[in-house]
Amino acid sequence: MFTTLCTARYHAHSIACIDRVDGRLLQMCTSEAGFSVSVQDLMLALRKQKIGKAVGADDIAMEAFIYGGGKLLVHVCFLFNMFIRHGYLPKVFMKSL
Fold first, then answer.
1. pLDDT tens digits, residue range 52-62?
2. Which residues contact 65 (CB under 8 A, 6 or more apart)?
3. pLDDT tens, 38-47?
4. How far apart are CA 61 and CA 71, in angstroms?
């Protein structure tokens, strides 16, 4: 019950933060091909993730993304869309255990 309440408050706060973000940054996030990853897409994907799991090769826990806030999601969105726009993904991102 408490976890559900905290999660609902977090998502409401994240949406409020995203609404305050400068539109120019979000406009820069769109790719030339017309395909882009939105902050809402990231929020939906994060809602499906489980907490308390082991970290990956990058030593970043999923909780860092889940509870990182709206500003973090905007920057991750920008990063992902730059990968799409330039057709490049660093080899470090392709590593797994």
1. 998 888 888 99
2. 46, 49, 72, 73, 76
3. 999 999 999 9
4. 18
